[in-house]
Description:
This protein is α+β, with helices and mostly antiparallel strands.
Amino acid sequence: MNMQKLLQMGQQMQSQMSDIKENLEKKEVSASSGGGMVEVSVNGKGEVRAVSIDPAVVDPDDVEMLEDLVLAAISEAQTKARRSYDEEMQKLAGGLPFPMKLPGLF
Length: 106
């Protein structure tokens, strides 16, 4: 493989990674807990964008349960976003193992 081809491949990969980053910022992933009483939406990078809480789950005498439900929903949404990120990186790597996280993407 000559140096010119290697440089072109690097540029293509950089462009594709830029596209993936842009798409991840636009993508929305949601998860819920408590049978849908708490719902959280994150972008494809795992950044929390919205939290929805059913008023029926708000009990001033049991704040800890609400905190647990919110935390569970956030955690699940971020896990889904991470899976989506990993899938995109696998596509970019052509199916090769891609265990590393790239700076600025996640």
